[in-house]
Amino acid sequence: MSEIHVDHQTDNNIIEKYCYNNDSTNCNIYGGLYQWSELMQYTDSNGAQGICPDGWYIPTISDFNRLLEIVDSNGNALKSLGVGVEEGAGNNISGFSLLLSGINFLPENFYMGLNSYTYLYSSTKEIGAPNSVRLHLSKFDNSAQINYLNGDTYISTARCIKGSYIVDNYPPESPNNPSPSNLSSNVPINNTILQWNCTDPDGDNLTYDVYLGRYHDPNLVKSNLSEASYETGELLPGSQYFWRIVAKDSKGLSTSSDTWKFKTEGESPAMNIPCPDLPFVVYEGKTYNTVQIGYQCWLKENLDIGEFISGYASNNGIIEKKCWNANPDNCEIYGGLYNWSEAMNYSTNAGNKGICPDGWHIPTVEELFILEVQVNGNANSLKAVGQGTGIGVGNNSSGFSALIANLGTNYWSSTEYDNYYSHQMSLSDDSNTIRIYALPDDRNHSIRCIRD
After folding, report:
1. How far apart are the C-alpha atoms of 77 and 407, rounded to whole Å?
2. What gap in Å lies between CA 115 and CA 195, rounded to an integer?
3. Which domains are assigned to the chain?
4. pLDDT digits (tens, 9 = 90+) for 33-72
5. Do 189 and 266 meet the contact criterion of CB atoms below 8 Å apart?
6. How far apart are the C-alpha atoms of 395 and 381, rounded to whole Å?
7. Rounded-to-integer distance, Cα 397 and Cα 47, Å
8. Is 371 helix (H, G, I), strand (E, B) or coil?
9. Which residues of the chain have pLDDT under 70?
10. pTM
């Protein structure tokens, strides 16, 4: 038996589960939702029994690959009849009978995606990274995708497979001994060589993927290197960089390093000054100040453009906005509030101009993460002086000058999470933490534009 849980699951010898929307009926229909650690019963062993019955185990990435080979990578063959729509309609020819159970997003305890998608977790994890292999299926298409996700943030379900896992290949050891070493400073900005050590317990040949960027989840910049080194090219001066290495053997197993950091030589980027060549922007009759925060140039005020409406915005060629508390005067103070599609001018391309002025765009989620790094994750640095309460009182050291309406404020990014959710940045009145996560597209949030 397992217990329904609404807080963070812990290693307490009790199997704890979430039920979608905290409704036990949903567990009876769709099964429980589990953090990856709870599902695995707090081991990282590939092929662990976890919470499965005796004689069964949580499938590995190899089991997922074999399953997809059997159904020719057709996700509809795994879905129950009646699950999914159009190209994503399930036919269940495999008998797998999958339901789309949605997920729970922590720490917000926010449920989303019921009957739209599901993640089936495996017992395979990137060593040195908080990511676990999952099988992703959606109601909209027949794809079945294997990729990685943070299993203790995105809470989902799993299937058990009969038998005992037999190890016929071991993953590479975790890449180590980085150069530059972790937390190095004054790293040259021109053609720095990243190096690392890595071995494989089976003696397999290894290739490497390099992830490098200016926020804590760096982007892939090079794939399938045969040597344990990478030349960066030119880097920005006075900036913090994050990097990690994924080592891959010839049999499909991989291992990630820790994420390492270094800071480049030179002066730290400017902050809390007008953008040097553009101190203000006039847009649709309104003047917006600018602020330089590191290498990013932002509008200093929330965008306020369009016609005030009391109903729902639509794709009618007119920019439509809401105002806080349905009072148009509040748009003069806090700016307009827009659903994601309206803010994006009905584009779905990350980095799109949306309703921003020419030469500006709605920030991508990566640009929001870079902003977070620039202020060391401190939300108070982004809030106008005196905004917020308790430990959440703003000092505006960045010059971003965020205003808090009621209990917090949210800023859309231009990056979709899926067909119904998009990423945004949330600042709460009583917290100094910046939170970046996905919310439904039909919610109305503020827009800050960033310079192209």
Report:
1. 46
2. 45
3. 3-162 (no CATH), 176-264 (2.60.40.10), 271-451 (no CATH)
4. 999 999 999 998 888 999 999 999 999 988 998 899 999 9
5. yes
6. 6
7. 49
8. helix
9. 1-7, 126-130
10. 0.71
